[in-house]
Amino acid sequence: MSAAIELTELTKTYVSRRVVRRGLSGLDLTVRTGEVFGYLGPNGAGKSTTIRLLLDLIRPTSGGIRVLGLDPRADAERLHRRIGYLAGDFVVDGRQRAGECLAFLGGLRGGVPARRITELADRLELDLGARIKSLSKGNRQKVGLVQAFMHDPELLILDEPTSGLDPLVQQTFSDMVTEARAAGRTVFMSSHIMSEVEAVADRVAIIREGRLVTTDTVAGLRARSFLRVRVDFAVPVAAAEFAGLPGVTDLTVDGTTLACRVDGSPDALVKAIGRHTVTGLRADGQDLEELFHAYYTGRAA
C-alpha cells in the first residue's frame, strides 16, 4: 500500500531568547493511503507542530517530509489543492456570513458546488446565514469542518477536529470520516482524547514530548491492556496456588475472595480457578483512556 505521508527523522527545534526547545525529535512515521490515522498526545506534545510541517507552514530543522508523494515546500501549490485542512485554531473573517465565507474558500479551490456546501451544512446543523462572529465555538468549528471536507480532498489533515462539538455532531463527524475512508481518501487527525479517534481510526500513534512513543491499531493497543479480576469462591483458597501464574500480578487473597491483575492471556488463571467452586466472577478490562494516559505520562510498560 502506498504512503500518503512519510516522515523520516523529522526534527523541529525552536530557539527563543537563547533557549533551545525541541518541538519534534527524530520522528519516523508513515500513514498509508486510504486509512484513518489518529495522532494522539497531550497538549504540547508536538501534534500541531507536525501538522504545520506537513503543510509547509513552518520549516523543519532537519529530516524528510513527503505528502502524497510530493515535497511540501517545492510542491506546495499543487499539494494544497489535494488537501483538506482544519487548523486547531480555525479563524476566519467574523464579519462574513458562514455561507459567504465557505463560497469564497470554495472559489479559492477552483470552485465547489453550492449544493455540496449546503449538504454538509445541513448534516452538521450549521446556519449558513449566520455571521461568523455571532457563532459559538462549536458552530465556528462546523464552518471549519465544512471547508475541509467540501472539495472531497485526497487527504484530510484535521487538528483537534471535534473541539467544541456536542456529542450528536461528533457522531456526524465520525460518519463523515468513515465515508471519506470508504471513498479511498486518507484522514490524519490529531487529538488528545482517545475516544475521539477510537471508533474510526485504523491505526493510532502516540506522541509525547516530541517523540513517537508507539504506533499500533486500536485492537493492538487493547491487547496490551490488562484485566482486573475478582473471584469469589465457595471456600477459602491459598494465595500460593495463583501467585506464580503467567501474567498474574497484584494478587491478594482474603479468605474466599481473590483479586489480581492479569496482563496478556488469562488462560492460566481461568484453569486454576476452574479447580474450585466459584460463586462470583468479575473481570474488568483496562479503559483505553487509562492506557493512553499511561503512555502520555511515561508510565506505560
TrEMBL record:
Gene3D superfamilies: P-loop containing nucleotide triphosphate hydrolases. PANTHER family: ABC TRANSPORTER ATP-BINDING PROTEIN (PTHR42711), ABC TRANSPORTER ATP-BINDING PROTEIN NATA (PTHR42711:SF5). Residues 5-234 form the ABC transporter domain. It comes from the Bacteria. InterPro entries: AAA+_ATPase, ABC_transporter-like_ATP-bd, ABC_transporter-like_CS, ABC_transporter_ATP-binding, P-loop_NTPase. It is a peripheral membrane protein. The keyword Manganese does not apply. This is ABC transporter ATP-binding protein. Keywords: Antibiotic resistance, ATP-binding, Nucleotide-binding, Transport. GO terms for molecular function: ATP binding. SMART domains: AAA.
